[in-house]
Amino acid sequence: MNKKERKLYILLFILLVCSILLECLSIIFANHISDSFILLMHGSSMLSSIISSILVIYYFYQFRYMRQNLKHIKQYCQSLKSIRDDEKAFKHDFCNIMQAMGGYISNNDMDGLRTYYYQLFNDCQKTNTLYSLTPEIVNEPAIYSILLSKYYKANDLGITINLNVLLNLTEINMKIYELTRILGILLDNAIEAASECNEKIINIEFRKDNFRNRKLLIVENTYLEKNIDTERIFEKGFSSKPGNTGMGLWEVRQILKKNKNLNLYTNKDKKYFKQQLEIYDTAKKKNA
Questions:
Q1: Most exposed residue of 6, 47, 154, 272, measured as fewest CB within 10 angstroms of its CB?
Q2: According to the model, what pLDDT value does residue 287 have?
Q3: What's the CATH number where 282 sits?
Q4: Is residue 237 part of a domain?
Q5: What is the mean pLDDT of the chain?
């Protein structure tokens, strides 16, 4: 503890002792002092208790804030370590990579070179995603924490995540608690669906649409179930998997109903299932 913290703790201790002493004295001498003096002692005791409670609450929230910051710092260090390891591996293998490409070129094996290139490109994309996962780019701590945890969850399942953050996340016109709930649900669903595919890909993008005065969160993923009903998935209890509660997207719809400036556009094509959360700068909801 520094000098300032020691003084505050001593003050807190003195206030608590004074509060207890005043209460004890008011009980012991209740029959020998006037009612007004007893009220004064009770008032002083109460004031001491209130100040002590405020200090305790203040330090409690300071502790929570510091613990949350420490968690983010640990996550950031983990991402930096992954970037450093990838860079070291790339530098170490650079000559081998070039020689392998030269082998395909000397044999005029363009199909083999193309396959090799895309494999190398996917590894480079992972490093680019980690470069994007920094507090400077993802400048909202709650979103940063969600994205980083889901990234490592997806990475353990062999899923490639491509991330683009093209806006200031602190400017989004939405409660951050509700945004992180929606983001977490969309990413959990995307990870579950992509993990079943041979090509495991999730694309995440935050960007502005200045023409329509809105911010966009786009999550798209590869998926197997091409016949999935994009309306039924929002029903309470609906789930395509045994044992699942089917509550995730239903909860998202409840959040959308409470906010007039939100809209969720869902569609799919042969490769990707896409969820586009539209956050308008004004309270008037618009359709895509």
A1: 6
A2: 46
A3: 3.30.565.10
A4: yes
A5: 78
55 vs 229: which has the higher pLDDT: 229
Strands (E), the chain: 160-165, 201-209, 214-222, 262-268, 272-280
Q: Residue 248's domain spans which residues?
A: 134-288
Distances in whole angstroms, Cα of residue 183 to Cα of each of 21, 52, 150, 275: 53, 39, 10, 10
The 10 Å Cβ neighbour count of residue 175 is 12
204 part of a folded domain? yes
- Asked if 196 and 158 touch (Cβ cutoff 8 Å), the reply is no
Amino acid code (one letter) for 53: S
Residue whose structure tokens are 């909202």:
140
What confidence score (pLDDT) does residue 148 get? 84
What is the distance between the alpha carbons of residues 201 and 272, in angstroms, rounded to a whole number? Answer: 9
Rounded CA separation 167/140 (Å) = 11
Q: List the structure tokens of 144.
A: 């940063």
Residue 250 lies in a domain: yes
**Considering all CA atoms of the chain, what is the largest pairwise distance in Å, rounded to the nearest integer?**
108
How many domains in the chain? Answer: 1
Q: pLDDT per residue over 174-222, tens digit each? A: 999 999 999 999 999 999 999 999 999 999 999 999 999 999 999 999 9
Say if 100 falls within a structural domain.
Answer: no
What φ, ψ does residue 240 adopt, rounded to 5°? -90, 0
Say if residues 12 and 52 touch (Cβ distance below 8 Å): yes
pLDDT > 70? residue 123: no
Cα–Cα dist 119/110, whole Å: 14
The C-alpha atoms of residue 166 and residue 173 are separated, in whole angstroms, by 16
Tokens in use for 39? 């009220």
Backbone angles phi, psi at 56, to 5 degrees: -65, -45
